[in-house]
């Protein structure tokens, strides 16, 4: 399964990079999203995908064993990453909106002409 | 007394910075009042001069500095005293002189500001014990002299001259910094005193050649040695008081000072001797030679300075006690007469309106006091008794005679240069002060009696000191002996006198003077010849070549930068991806611990694979679709797909967060994109293929890295700790949540801050209306 997920991540990166290299800003933003998702997956994979138990401590127990449940640490990291990604996404999109409103183009090669419309 | 001296140096700096405040208070007296501090320092140094015991130095720790290695520690010994007295004494006279010379100039505040700071920097350089501090003061003199040389910044010539001086001396400064760091690393200390005490000598070290090269470039640029001599004549574009100061005691002499300071550490090797003697000898000769062909009094003086600097460098290169002694005395001699002559030139320029020796004449009658001061200085320059210059020249000849292996080179060069110096002195004396033949008498703007007495004080004082020291050179002996001890690290007896008996050296002197007078007699044909040669060398006019070099360098840098900083984000990214790809792949292939994780491999699960396939199709569709909405929705497919994947592997918190975040992003996206046009195909087919190849490469690289990463075994995963303590310490059963809000609560606080900032950013972006602003304009 690890091999499949690793290939999946590689494909996501390939698509993300391809989108990053486009001239359209929207596609560039899409590329950033794809790559950030793929990166989250890398972190997730590092915790292992052999176990699929929920990382909860049972209602009777005081401790949990890592034997059965998914590693909680990567999850915590990814959770932070997703939320921050949301913040970035909102900001980029607002920026993009303003940019288009000011310049009337979404071609990055026109970026030098921001001041004239 | 030592502390007082250092406090006074500090006061000079403070005063320099306060000039803008002080000048409105002191008005036209600024120069004279500012001069009091260097004079006070001169007094303090004089007391030290007569009280400093032999073979001792005084180290003063100020406890002020940036690092333990970089403390502003000061060192008072014979060398720094001799240089310090020249800098402060002539500095005071120059300030007083400027008070009159600059009286009608605009920008006097700026003038005094930089002049006083320059003086402080030079004093700091002379007294510094720490090599890094010495370097800082060295650079400070370069920077302040840049502003002084370019004082008339509204004219083209001074601007160019000052830039040239700055570029060259700053280049030398960089070399000095490297040399200082090298010395510091090799010796383990930046303190001159420690270097002296421990007797470090780098002559045999394998890095010696590099250190010597760096130091000699620093010295050659600062002290205008061949082939870097060309900036100095340009520097005379500065107002005369500045020329007087730069040439006599400061700036160009910093290189000489550095050589003397480093002589115990670096000196005495074959390389040191041959390089310095050669460079100094050439500089000495061409300086005097070019001076013969000049008509402008200041230019003549500038070229003779080059010659004098060459003499000093050559003497230090010889590295015998006779030659070092000669170099020290010659430094004093040169400072005294050159400062005096520049001041005389300034007075003549002010009072007649010209510096052309062909137009001037007969000043001895009309301006007797100025003339006598000038003539005394000229006597010193040509090395005639009873001036100190005579002793200086005798010592120089003595030193040259005493090194038999090189005397065949240095004696002819030295005698030739000195002959020309004598000829120049006689020429200047004759043309300016005596001759009225074939010339209209030059009109004075005001008779000399009406000139302010203090205006004349500077050159007169310097001339008298030169005369006095010539008569009674014994005063210098003790301090010279002390200086010699720290330059040569051996005890040398100093015995100075005008009359040394009838010997080989005296014969050489008589011969030199006779030949000099002979050159003067045949000045017309010789002058013509010199000018022809100068005209011929003008095609190799170094300042122009230097300017061309700088210009070419700038245009090269411009083209180069345009190529690298082209402004297309995708080419930046391509460079970045391609470089990373090559490096990572190389690293992956050079390590050989397998490709595929053997242990901990989970079996294939069909339902997961289906989810992945669906998500992948979403992304691929997002790439190719032309409709914005479809692109966003298909991207949503990816997001939700990953969310499901998290769910399948038991990460519930992740799944729900991803789901919510994806939804919010899609909503914002739709709101924004609603206003945008459809995607246009902006790139050519060729570039799409190229991008696809790069993208595929990156994909392969990432897959390999992810697989490889599975081999990394972390010794003690911290997750164990969380699993055990989440309930007991954090009182929560959802371990992920406890990590976020308890164990790593500060991270979460940071995350909230980022979100807050992003929200503020979005808010202000939407509020801030660029369009309105533009239309209002």
For this entry, give a set of tags.
heterodimer; A: 117 residues; mainly alpha; Helix Hairpins; disordered C terminus; B: 777 residues; two-stranded antiparallel sheet; 75% helix; transmembrane (chain A); cell membrane (chain A); CPA3_antiporter_subunitC (chain A); transmembrane helix (chain A)
Topology at a glance:
The complex is a heterodimer of chains A (117) and B (777).
Chain A lengths: L1 H19 L4 H22 L25 H32 L14
Chain B lengths: L1 H25 L3 H5 L1 H16 L6 E10 L2 E7 L1 H24 L6 H20 L3 H19 L6 H32 L4 H7 L9 H15 L8 H5 L4 H9 L3 H15 L3 H23 L4 H22 L2 H32 L10 H4 L1 H15 L5 H14 L2 H31 L18 H19 L5 H12 L15 H18 L1 H15 L4 H23 L4 H22 L15 H19 L3 H21 L3 H22 L11 H25 L9 H12 L4 H9 L1 H23 L2 H7 L1
Antiparallel strand pairs in B: 1-2
Structure, described:
Chain A: This is Cation:proton antiporter. Chain A: Keywords: Cell membrane, Membrane, Transmembrane, Transmembrane helix. Chain A: One of its GO terms (cellular component) is plasma membrane. The complex is a heterodimer of chains A (117) and B (777). By secondary structure, chain A is mainly alpha-helical. Chain A has a single domain (2-51, 69-104), classed as Helix Hairpins (Orthogonal Bundle), CATH 1.10.287. Chain A is built from three helices and no strands. In chain A, helix 1 (2-20) packs antiparallel against helix 2 and helix 2 (25-46) packs antiparallel against helix 3. The longest helix of chain A is centred in the last third of the chain and has 32 residues, at 72-103. Chain B has 777 residues and is mainly alpha-helical. Chain B is elongated.
């Amino acid at each position: 399964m690890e091999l499949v997920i690793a290939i999946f991540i590689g494909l996501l990166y390939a698509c993300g990079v391809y989108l990053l290299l486009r001239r359209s800003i929207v596609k560039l933003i899409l590329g950033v999203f794809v790559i950030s998702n793929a990166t989250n997956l890398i972190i997730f994979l590092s915790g292992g995908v052999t176990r699929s138990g929920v990382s909860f401590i049972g209602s009777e127990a005081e401790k949990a064993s890592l034997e059965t449940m998914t590693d909680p640490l990567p999850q915590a990291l990814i959770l932070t990453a997703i939320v921050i990604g949301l913040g970035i996404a909102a900001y980029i999109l607002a920026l993009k909106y303003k940019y288009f409103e000011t310049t009337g183009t979404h071609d990055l090669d026109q970026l030098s002409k921001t001041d004239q419309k | 007394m030592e502390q007082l001296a250092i406090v006074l140096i500090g006061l000079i700096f403070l005063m320099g910075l306060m000039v803008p405040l002080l000048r409105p208070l002191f008005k036209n007296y600024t120069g004279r009042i500012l001069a009091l501090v260097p004079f006070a320092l001169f007094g303090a140094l004089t007391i030290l001069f007569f009280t400093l015991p032999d073979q001792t130095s005084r180290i003063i720790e100020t406890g002020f500095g940036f690092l333990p290695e970089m403390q502003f520690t000061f060192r008072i010994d014979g060398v720094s005293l001799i240089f310090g007295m020249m800098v402060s004494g002539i500095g005071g006279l120059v300030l007083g002189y400027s008070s009159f010379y600059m009286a009608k100039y605009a920008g006097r505040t700026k003038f005094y500001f930089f002049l006083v700071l320059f003086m402080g920097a030079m004093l700091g350089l002379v007294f510094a014990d720490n090599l890094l501090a010495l370097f800082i003061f060295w650079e400070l003199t370069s920077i302040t002299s840049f502003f002084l040389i370019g004082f008339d910044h509204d004219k083209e010539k001074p601007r160019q001259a000052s830039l040239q001086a700055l570029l060259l001396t700053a280049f030398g400064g960089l070399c000095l910094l490297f040399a200082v760091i090298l010395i510091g690393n090799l010796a383990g200390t930046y303190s001159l005193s420690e270097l002296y005490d421990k007797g470090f000598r780098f002559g045999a070290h394998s890095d010696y050649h590099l250190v010597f090269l760096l130091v000699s470039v620093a010295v050659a640029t600062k002290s205008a040695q061949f082939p870097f001599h060309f900036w100095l004549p340009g520097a005379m574009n500065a107002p005369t008081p500045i020329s007087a100061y730069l040439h006599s005691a400061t700036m160009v002499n910093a290189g000489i000072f550095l050589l003397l300071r480093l002589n115990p550490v670096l000196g005495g090797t074959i390389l040191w001797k041959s390089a310095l003697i050669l460079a100094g000898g050439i500089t000495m000769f061409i300086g005097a030679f070019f001076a013969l062909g000049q008509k402008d009094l200041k230019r003549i003086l500038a070229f003779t300075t080059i010659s004098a600097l060459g003499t000093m460098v050559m003497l230090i290169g010889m590295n015998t006690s006779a030659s070092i002694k000669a170099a020290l005395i010659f430094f004093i001699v040169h400072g005294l007469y050159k400062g005096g002559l520049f001041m005389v030139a300034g007075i003549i320029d002010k009072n007649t309106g010209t510096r052309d020796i062909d137009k001037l004449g007969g000043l001895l009658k009309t301006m007797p006091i100025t003339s006598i001061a000038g003539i005394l200085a000229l006597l010193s320059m040509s090395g005639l008794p009873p001036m100190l210059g005579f002793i200086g020249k005798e010592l120089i000849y003595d030193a040259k005679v005493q090194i038999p292996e090189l005397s065949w080179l240095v004696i002819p060069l030295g005698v030739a240069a000195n002959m020309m110096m004598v000829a120049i002195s006689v020429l200047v004396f004759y043309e300016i002060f005596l001759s009225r033949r074939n010339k209209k008498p030059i009109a004075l703007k005001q008779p000399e009696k009406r000139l302010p007495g203090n205006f004349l004080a500077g050159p007169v004082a310097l001339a008298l000191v030169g005369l006095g020291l010539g008569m009674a050179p014994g005063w210098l002996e003790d301090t010279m002996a002390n200086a010699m001890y720290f330059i040569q690290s051996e005890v040398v007896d100093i015995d100075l006198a005008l009359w040394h008996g009838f010997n080989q050296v005296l014969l050489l002197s008589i011969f030199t003077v006779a030949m000099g007078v002979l050159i003067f007699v045949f000045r017309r044909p010789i002058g013509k010849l010199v000018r022809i040669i100068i005209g011929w060398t003008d095609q190799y006019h170094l300042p122009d070549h230097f300017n061309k070099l700088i210009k070419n360098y700038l245009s090269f840098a411009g083209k180069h930068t345009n190529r690298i900083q082209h402004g297309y984000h995708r080419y930046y990214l391509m460079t970045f991806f391609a470089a990373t790809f090559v490096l990572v792949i190389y690293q992956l292939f050079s390590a050989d611990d397998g490709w595929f994780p053997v242990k901990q491999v989970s079996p294939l699960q069909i339902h997961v694979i289906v989810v992945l396939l669906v998500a992948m199709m979403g992304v691929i569709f997002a790439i190719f679709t032309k409709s914005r909405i479809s692109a966003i929705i298909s991207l949503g497919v990816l997001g939700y797909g990953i969310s499901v994947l998290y769910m399948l592997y038991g990460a519930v918190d992740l799944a729900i967060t991803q789901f919510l975040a994806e939804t919010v992003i899609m909503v914002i996206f739709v709101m924004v994109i609603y206003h945008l046009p459809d995607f246009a195909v902006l790139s050519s087919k060729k570039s799409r293929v190229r991008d696809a190849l790069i993208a595929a490469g990156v994909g392969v690289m990432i897959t390999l890295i992810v697989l490889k990463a599975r081999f990394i075994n972390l010794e003690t995963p911290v997750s164990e700790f969380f699993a055990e303590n989440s309930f007991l310490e954090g009182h929560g059963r959802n371990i992920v949540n406890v990590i976020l809000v308890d164990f790593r609560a500060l991270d979460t606080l940071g995350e909230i801050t980022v979100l807050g900032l992003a929200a503020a950013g979005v808010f202000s972006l939407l509020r801030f209306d660029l369009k309105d602003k533009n239309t209002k304009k």
